[in-house]
Specification:
Elements: H1 3-14, H2 19-26, H3 30-38, H4 46-54, H5 59-62, H6 74-106, E1 109-111, E2 117-119
Antiparallel strand pairs: 1-2
Helix pairs in contact: 2-3, 2-4
Amino acid sequence: MNIIQQRFQKARKFLGLSKNAAAKNAGLTHTAVNQFEKGISNRPNFDYLTYLIKQGINPYFLIGESEEVEGQNLEEFISKNKYDKLEAKYEELQSKFENMEETLQLLQIEVDENGNLKKRDSNI
């Protein structure tokens, strides 16, 4: 049994579920859950993975990246990932904008209220 299989088994037990109950709740057969947890099958079923995360199991725990069993529910996890990506994109765009402003100042170009570029008056 590898660490991922151990984590899935620990998560199921953390939720207080038998293999039968976990399988039924996830819409799987007992055999599917049993084969994965025993190492007969090396790939977890996506439905089983989703079910555990929806029950509040930390996705990072399941893949061996965290020791915290409890985590966010799936909606919070997805929302946080989207937020993190948006925040990174915002920071990237902000950096590009600042670089553009510096370039325009060096070239003595300014942007008017309509967004048009014009040469800055050198008498100012």
